[in-house]
């Protein structure tokens, strides 16, 4: 059977399973699934179903749960455990139904240019409308919005967290792919896709840059990411789990080596990637022997636990905050302080929301985790009547504080841009990076930060933003060896005014090593009692000329057996394994690497040895 035939058969089976789930149903729950026909702007022409548990806090969390290709919102409701968990823990579930085809039927749009732009239209904007509807209609907590989904829905989970990091707090992607894996509509049908065809291989820096460029101005807290994949998945290859891990660990600035590994259930191999404070920002699950059939029983609970939604039910609101006091009032801002609330239900005080009274629908002005806030973006010469509400970790809201009234001054807002930065210079240039420094810009209200722009070559090309800095320096990494780049810097202030660009500095990266050399570096993705996965086995061209093919050899310890591999041609002789490149990953420029090859092996139970003697030619 051809690969495409297998994929289509798998998709049909998934669709059949979704239909069977609707017919057979699941145990009756206290609430019922409701379709919402008018929820706001709907450029993706999607359908919306929502599950609202009868017992929930005043400001419940929101989980967006998305089906795979060929499925539907009601089908995913029936075939997954999110609704029963909502009954138990009091969150609301949105089940969108996709209608995009791209040759495969009811798939979420993760390929079009419109879907990759904030406010560009298509499915992402429809999903945001659904979230807004739940916030307005059921008091959903906009600070606790999460995404999850299977296959196409898992792809959309990673997509939404990349394009809208300001909306979501965390995501759990089952059998998904990294953001921007699909180049366009022509690349989407899995049978002909470079993304899911087993040939996708980018560096962690390239994957991370794709996310950062989706929202260049974002400076808030990135949503945490949980990733699931079956080792026997052929429809969306298991190797893409590693590509997703590379993307999201790079986004968080974390090492590719997990900070911890364990086996929470038999056959579930979990790798966790924590930051310096110990917070797990990314975690991945390799499900041994599982095909394209996740989530399975119990996995949804682990997703909800990762979201932080499984604490004991707390329905007691915090005490009401004290009357706010206004100070430092300007034409566009003011500082408010108030007496802090206390939490009474055990879930902890989470913060405060500040509202302006304005008729039937009050306007939210801002949020704070302390008993003070500096408001910005107010209208000049305008009277404001403002009150504060506290919220706890379970989403319960306090009563309204008494109001404070203040009037902003009549002077117009800040429209003066900063001066251009000067003295741009580069130092410490290596084969893959350089460090930029410059003299600070000045501004009448203060410089907030700097945009760093880069263009290829000594002339021509377009300057594009590659990063931001709050200081007067920036380290640019992931560059190509022996290559020329140009840089400029511009400043911006709190009002969004942008300065002219600085002068241009040009650098040429160093050569990438000696002619004809290469190296092979293994990474242990996960291991358990009688097996392990090495992914990636990174091949790096350490020479000064482009290589068009590579061969890696290594030795398996006695009793170890290779059980699977991807993105390489493998042969074995006794305990010696020889791997040769395939068509898409053999050509490497000087200093370039490929991390697409990986393999899985079994070993005697209790044996902790790993392969050794890696050589590359």
Automatic annotation (TrEMBL):
Domain Fibronectin type-III: 320-411, 420-512
Signal peptide range: 1-30
Region annotation Disordered: where it falls in the sequence: 408-428
Keyword Signal attributed: yes
Location of the CBM2 domain: 511-617
Annotated InterPro entries: AB_hydrolase_fold, CBD2, CBM2/CBM3_carb-bd_dom_sf, CBM2_carb-bd_dom_sf, Esterase_phb, FN3_dom, FN3_sf, Ig-like_fold
Keyword Signal annotated: yes
UniProt name for this protein: PHB depolymerase family esterase
Keywords associated with the record: Carbohydrate metabolism, Glycosidase, Hydrolase, Polysaccharide degradation, Signal
SMART domains: CBD_II, FN3
Gene3D superfamilies, alphabetized: 2.60.40.290, alpha/beta hydrolase, Immunoglobulins
Transmembrane segments: none
Provenance organism: Nonomuraea salmonea
């Amino acid at each position: 059977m051809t690969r495409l035939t297998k994929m289509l058969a798998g998709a049909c089976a998934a669709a059949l399973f979704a239909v069977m789930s609707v017919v057979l149903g699941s145990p009756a729950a206290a609430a019922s699934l409701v379709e919402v026909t008018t929820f706001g702007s709907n450029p993706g022409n999607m359908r919306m179903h929502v599950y609202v548990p009868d017992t929930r806090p005043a400001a419940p969390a929101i989980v967006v749960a998305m089906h795979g290709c060929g499925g539907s919102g009601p089908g995913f409701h029936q075939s997954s455990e999110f609704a029963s968990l909502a009954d138990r823990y009091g969150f609301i579930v949105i089940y969108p139904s996709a209608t995009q085809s791209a040759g495969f039927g009811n798939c979420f749009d993760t390929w079009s240019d419109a879907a990759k732009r904030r406010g560009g239209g298509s499915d992402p904007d429809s999903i945001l409308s659904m979230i807004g509807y739940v916030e307005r209609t059921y008091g959903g907590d906009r600070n606790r919005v999460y995404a999850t989904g299977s296959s196409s829905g898992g792809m959309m989970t990673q997509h939404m967290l990349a394009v809208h990091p300001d909306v979501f707090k965390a995501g759990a992607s089952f059998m998904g792919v990294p953001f921007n894996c699909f180049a366009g509509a022509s690349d989407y049908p899995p049978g002909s896709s470079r993304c899911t065809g087993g040939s996708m291989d980018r560096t962690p820096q390239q994957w991370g840059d794709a996310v950062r460029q989706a929202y260049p101005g974002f400076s808030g807290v990135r949503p945490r990411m949980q990733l699931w994949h079956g080792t026997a998945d052929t429809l969306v290859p298991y190797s893409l789990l590693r590509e997703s891990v590379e993307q999201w660990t790079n986004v968080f600035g974390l090492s590719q080596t997990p900070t911890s590994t364990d086996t929470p259930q038999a056959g579930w191999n979990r790798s966790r990637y924590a930051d310096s404070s110990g917070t797990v920002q990314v975690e991945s699950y390799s499900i041994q022997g599982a095909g394209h059939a996740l989530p399975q029983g119990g996995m949804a609970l682990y997703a909800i636990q990762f979201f932080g939604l499984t604490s004991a039910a707390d329905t007691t609101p915090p005490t009401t905050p004290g009357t706010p006091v206004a100070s430092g009032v300007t034409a566009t801002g003011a500082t408010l302080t108030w007496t802090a609330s206390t939490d009474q239900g055990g879930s902890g005080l989470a913060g405060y929301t500040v509202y302006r009274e304005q008729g039937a629908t009050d306007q939210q002005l801002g949020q704070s985790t302390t008993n003070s806030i500096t408001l910005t973006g107010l209208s000049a010469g305008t009277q404001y009547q403002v009150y504060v509400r506290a919220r706890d970790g379970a989403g319960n809201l306090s009563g309204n504080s008494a109001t404070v009234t203040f009037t902003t001054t009549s002077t117009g807002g800040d429209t003066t841009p900063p001066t251009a930065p000067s003295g741009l210079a580069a130092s410490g240039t290596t084969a893959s990076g350089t460090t930029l420094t410059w003299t600070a810009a000045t501004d009448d209200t203060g410089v907030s930060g700097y945009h760093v722009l880069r263009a290829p070559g000594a002339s021509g090309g377009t300057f594009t933003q590659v990063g931001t800095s709050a200081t007067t320096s920036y380290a640019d990494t992931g560059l190509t060896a022996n290559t020329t780049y140009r840089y400029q810097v511009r400043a911006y202030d709190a009002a969004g005014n942008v300065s002219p660009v600085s002068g241009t500095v040009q650098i040429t990266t160093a050569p990438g090593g000696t002619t004809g050399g290469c190296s092979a570096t293994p990474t242990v993705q996960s291991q358990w009692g009688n097996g392990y996965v090495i992914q990636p086995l990174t091949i790096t061209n350490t020479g000064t000329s482009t290589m068009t093919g590579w061969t890696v050899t290594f030795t398996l310890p006695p009793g170890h057996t290779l059980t699977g591999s991807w993105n390489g041609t493998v042969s074995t002789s006794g305990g010696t394994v020889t791997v040769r490149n395939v068509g898409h990953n053999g050509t490497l420029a000087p200093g370039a690497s490929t991390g697409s090859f990986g393999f899985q092996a079994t070993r005697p139970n209790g044996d902790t040895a790993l392969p050794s003697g890696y050589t590359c030619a």
